[in-house]
Amino acid sequence: MSEPDFENIPAYKPAKNEEFMSSGQVDHFKIKLNSWKDQLISDAESTITHIQEDSNQVADINDRATLEEEFALELRTRDRERKLITKIEKTLHIIELGDYGYCKTCGAEISLLRLEARPTADECIDCKTIAEKKEV
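Structure tokens predicted for C4-type zinc finger protein, DksA/TraR family (136 residues):
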């Protein structure tokens, strides 16, 4: 699965005494999320083109089997990314509602460091850790 390419979007540096989820922070994460979503969509489109172009060029049955296996793996990856696009869109909706950056479980602020690493995070690290322990 594609890792988000955030290198061209530097981490947000809040000003001293800046209010949490100020308009600057919100705009930063909107840009970050939309950039990630656009990258995933572009990757999906290139996969379609790649499969269409490469599927007709193989005559040997063994090569075709290998190629089809590669296609299957690539399609599974794109399916996970499709689900991630849905999660990104959900997060963008949460931004529009004004609830972004706050834990859905306890209401605490989610640290900017966590949001930089995982912009779709909807739980603070403490609540996420507890939820993961319950899953095991």
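Residues 34 and 104 are 22 Å apart (CA to CA).
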